[in-house]
């Protein structure tokens, strides 16, 4: 049996076994939204002179006039056909909204993760090489700072410093300069789309808009990544094969970067998956501060106005992404260490 | 070839000229573009959709025309809309019959929709039919002007439409100025309508079919709308196209970011900054603020007259006498508004306008006496609610109310509730008392009373039901004699001052902040920006 088919089988099995969890998430969110106080029909009938008739009309439009079990069955049927309902706050279908906005969130999250990794790995390694030194304390300080300062504070501070005072950052609103021309939408990722279109002005504009929000996010998740790198590096550095390597007279650099780091990366990989999933949902404040049209701020707006469909759709999306990230990590694990199996 | 120093100099001069030319070209487009930044999002292009936001109203005003429109007047130094001065928009002129019941609209013969087709009487008739028949928010609004059924609108000829009401309603014509009475390109909408959706409401959410000053170039629900000038627009006062070539209407949730953008000159206009920031912004000298008291809005504390002990008039009066109005005005609003308390009249007001300063002022001894008369000499316990979204000004109000009422032995708990929850609890009359800001599109005394002070609808915040008010308000709307109308209004205001179902606090300012070279901003009934008035000097 080839490795590819083994991976496919493993992935398939994992995907099927996660279906009950997704189903549970759907039902749970559905019920949770309905026990929240606040009647969305009343909220949306906010026009002048909206009376009982208007409220009833909206209730029917949202399907809230039916008993809850029936609403749930209808909702499940809709999900089965790929229909996540319609958002009252944006007037669009939830599916269209999510498809529009997910690339924005993903682009931000990926960039932030890359940025965080490129900082966290060297910092973690440095800290592990000289535990309890000044460098170690410095890294610990930076990590604590990053994790303690809420993202909306660091985001606003960055805007204040780099946009307002220094004037070197572009105005912190959205994914691309409003006066710039947008590249044609292919993937929804502006960096990729503009590169494909060969529009380097747009690429530069999109990239420079990304710097501040991505830095804000990266600062926030620096701690788990750097700390995990440090811990697993420390563990690996004291292990037998490193000692053997050093005894054999290999250079310090080679031992650390090739033998130790490769082995220390496994737990970092796990934590990366978790960090990625949480970032996607947790960057709601960053999205708000930087007017980033992502899914998290979308879900928050919907939640505040008791707009059921988008919140349910968002939770389902997040659950699916979480399942997919875990699946990928499992597969990567299996590749890295054939002893790990889920048969 | 030999390159001399002179050639190099000449070459670089050419390059410099070329680059400065392209720079001035882009600066030109920037000068012709207005970038408007706002906190909330445009969620639909059809203003009649349930849940349409104020920002959506603002866009629709500029994209669609109505038959008629409010003119504007100066109030102090600022331009405001004028409900008494109605001008034609798609209609060249409107002729009102002597009995005030028939309106004849003569349409502009050169008015065209964005797709180039002429605006005809059929379009007008279809659009007004839609306003009164389709399931949308329009019917309830135009109903306040006695527009209820399609039979009221009649096509006389290609360019003339007649509209009739059964009784001379004071608000019949003003209602046709509001953004719910928009005129659609009926052929275009019908093409996109379905059997299940005969009025094409699904389609108009994301598409426009208007004849207004701007067309929609790009619409991203929840993010931004880009408008392009319609050069063929004839609905303006002078029949000329709007000043700005392009409008970018962008949602930026963070108020601090909006303020920085305006100050840095990257954005041109915002009307919803934090009141606390505006003075500092203006003092730093790079921007100006046009502050207009929202004379058709009011902030109030509403008592639930259906719930004990607030069903007792004396309790309400006691609380009205216990409140520290001036401190509240300072702490919550930084005095950026017009007071609606401290009126000097008693008994009957001297003027029939509304809202006007009501005769409430702080008098703790009187409050204690009233509470004892009401049967609560030792006070009682209750809770005070406000909307989380309004926390910036409601939180200080709540704290001061709590402190002031503790002085007369009423123990108040404070509850912050999210939007949807507070509107539900208000409608179900489950809150004892709370703070709210509301707005009437048509600032006319009887309309205020009809909308906010009687009836079962949500906007009757206090659930007040006074038989005399019901009777007068229903009659006043059809009163054509000004003296009789004023007398009726004064009586209603007097009853309200006595019964105290709500305590009026103030009319908040609308602070429009912009660079110094932006001019012409007009305060509109919809509290949005009418881009057709704004220009860069």
From TrEMBL, chain A:
GO MF entry, a single one: dipeptide transmembrane transporter activity
GO cellular component terms given for this protein: plasma membrane
PROSITE patterns cross-referenced by the UniProt entry: ABC_TM1 (PS50928)
InterPro entries associated with the record: BPD_transp_1_N (IPR045621), MetI-like (IPR000515), MetI-like_sf (IPR035906)
Top-level division of the source organism's lineage: Bacteria
Gene3D superfamilies given in the database record: MetI-like
SUPFAM superfamilies in alphabetical order: MetI-like (SSF161098)
Protein name: ABC transporter permease
Species annotation: Phreatobacter aquaticus
TrEMBL record, chain B:
PROSITE patterns hit by this protein: SBP_BACTERIAL_5, TAT
GO cellular component: ATP-binding cassette (ABC) transporter complex; outer membrane-bounded periplasmic space
Secreted keyword on record: no
Coiled coil: none
Compartment annotation: Periplasm
Protein's recorded name: ABC transporter substrate-binding protein
Keywords recorded for this protein, A-Z: Signal, Transport
Gene Ontology MF terms: peptide transmembrane transporter activity
Pfam families the UniProt entry points to: SBP_bac_5 (PF00496)
Residues in Solute-binding protein family domain copies: 86-456
SUPFAM superfamilies in alphabetical order: Periplasmic binding protein-like II
GO biological process: peptide transport
Gene3D superfamilies for this protein: Dipeptide-binding Protein, Domain 1 (3.90.76.10), Dipeptide-binding Protein, Domain 3 (3.10.105.10), Periplasmic binding protein-like II (3.40.190.10)
């Amino acid at each position: 049996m080839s490795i590819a088919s083994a991976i496919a089988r493993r992935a398939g099995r994992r995907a099927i076994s996660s279906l009950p969890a997704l189903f549970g998430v759907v039902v749970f969110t559905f019920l949770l939204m309905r026990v929240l106080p606040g009647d969305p029909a009343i909220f949306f009938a906010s026009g002048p002179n909206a009376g009982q008739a208007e409220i009833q009309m909206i209730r029917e439009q949202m399907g809230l006039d039916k008993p809850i079990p029936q609403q749930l069955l209808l909702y499940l049927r809709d999900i089965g056909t790929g229909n996540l309902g319609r958002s009252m706050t944006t007037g669009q279908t939830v599916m269209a909204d999510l498809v529009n906005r997910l690339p924005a969130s993903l682009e931000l999250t990926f960039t932030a993760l890359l940025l965080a990794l490129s900082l966290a790995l060297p910092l973690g390694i440095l800290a592990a090489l000289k535990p309890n030194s000044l460098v170690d304390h410095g890294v610990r300080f930076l990590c604590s700072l990053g994790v303690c300062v809420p993202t909306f504070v660091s985001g606003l501070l960055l805007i204040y410093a780099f946009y307002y005072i220094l004037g070197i950052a572009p105005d912190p609103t959205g994914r691309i300069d409003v006066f710039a021309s947008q590249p044609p939408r292919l993937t929804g990722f502006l960096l990729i789309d503009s590169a494909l279109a060969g529009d380097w002005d747009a690429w530069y504009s999109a990239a420079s808009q990304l710097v501040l929000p991505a830095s804000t996010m990266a600062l926030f998740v620096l701690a788990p990544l750097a700390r995990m790198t440090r811990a697993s590096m420390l563990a690996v550095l004291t292990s037998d094969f490193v000692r053997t390597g050093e005894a054999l007279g290999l250079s310090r650099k080679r031992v650390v970067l090739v033998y130790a780091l490769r082995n220390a990366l496994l737990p970092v990989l796990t934590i990366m998956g978790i960090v990625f999933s949480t970032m996607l949902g947790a960057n709601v404040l960053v999205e708000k501060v930087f007017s980033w049209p992502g899914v998290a701020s979308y879900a928050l707006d919907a939640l505040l106005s008791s707009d059921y469909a988008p919140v349910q759709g968002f939770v389902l999306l997040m659950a699916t992404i979480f399942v997919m990230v875990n699946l990928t990590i499992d597969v990567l694990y299996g590749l890295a260490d054939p002893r790990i199996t889920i048969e | 070839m030999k390159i001399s120093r002179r050639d190099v100099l000449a070459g670089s001069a050419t390059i410099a000229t070329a680059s400065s030319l392209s720079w001035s070209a882009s600066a030109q487009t920037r000068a012709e573009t207005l970038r408007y930044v706002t906190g909330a999002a445009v969620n639909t292009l059809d203003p009649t959709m349930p849940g349409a936001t104020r920002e959506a109203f603002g866009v629709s005003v500029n994209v669609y025309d109505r038959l008629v429109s409010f003119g504007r007047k100066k109030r102090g130094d600022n331009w405001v809309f004028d409900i008494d001065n109605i001008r034609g928009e798609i209609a060249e002129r409107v002729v009102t019959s002597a009995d005030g019941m028939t309106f004849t609209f003569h349409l502009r013969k050169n008015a065209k929709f964005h797709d180039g087709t002429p605006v005809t009487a059929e379009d007008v008739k279809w659009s007004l039919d839609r306003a009164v028949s389709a399931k949308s928010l329009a019917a309830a609004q135009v109903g306040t002007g006695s527009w209820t059924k399609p039979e009221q609108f009649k096509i006389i000829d290609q360019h003339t439409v007649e509209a009739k009401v059964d009784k001379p309603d004071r608000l019949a014509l003003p209602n046709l100025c509001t953004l719910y009475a928009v005129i659609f390109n009926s052929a275009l909408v019908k093409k996109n309508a379905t059997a299940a959706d005969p009025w094409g409401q699904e389609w108009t959410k994301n598409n426009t079919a208007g004849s207004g000053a701007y067309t929609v170039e790009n619409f991203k629900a929840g993010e931004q709308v880009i408008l392009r000038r319609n050069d063929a627009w004839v609905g303006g006062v002078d029949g000329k196209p709007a000043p700005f070539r392009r409008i970018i209407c962008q949602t930026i949730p963070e108020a601090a970011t909006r303020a920085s953008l305006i100050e840095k000159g990257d954005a041109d206009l915002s009307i919803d900054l934090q009141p606390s920031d505006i003075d500092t912004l203006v003092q730093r000298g790079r921007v100006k603020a046009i502050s207009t008291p929202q004379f058709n809005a009011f902030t109030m504390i509403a008592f639930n007259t259906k719930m004990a002990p607030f069903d007792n008039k004396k309790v309400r009066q006691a609380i009205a006498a216990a409140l520290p109005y001036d401190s509240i005005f300072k702490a919550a609003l930084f005095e950026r508004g017009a007071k609606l308390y401290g009126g000097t009249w008693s008994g009957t007001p001297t003027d029939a306008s509304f809202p006007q300063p009501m005769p409430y002022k702080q008098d703790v001894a009187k409050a204690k006496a009233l509470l004892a008369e009401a049967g609560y000499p030792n006070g009682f316990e209750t809770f005070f609610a406000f909307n989380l979204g309004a926390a910036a000004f409601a939180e200080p109000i709540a704290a001061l109310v709590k402190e002031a009422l503790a002085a007369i032995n009423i123990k108040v708990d404070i509850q912050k509730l999210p939007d949807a929850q507070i509107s539900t609890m208000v409608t179900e009359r489950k809150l004892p008392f709370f703070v709210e800001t509301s707005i009437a599109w048509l600032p006319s005394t009887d309309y205020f009373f009809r909308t906010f002070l009687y009836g079962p609808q949500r906007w009757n915040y206090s659930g007040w039901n006074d038989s005399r008010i019901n009777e007068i308000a229903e009659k006043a709307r059809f009163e054509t004699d000004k003296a009789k109308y004023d007398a009726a209004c004064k009586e209603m205001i007097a009853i309200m001052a006595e019964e105290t179902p709500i305590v009026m606090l103030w009319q908040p300012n609308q602070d429009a902040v912009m660079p110094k070279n932006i001019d012409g901003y007009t305060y509109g009934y919809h509290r949005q920006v009418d881009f057709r008035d704004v220009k860069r000097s």
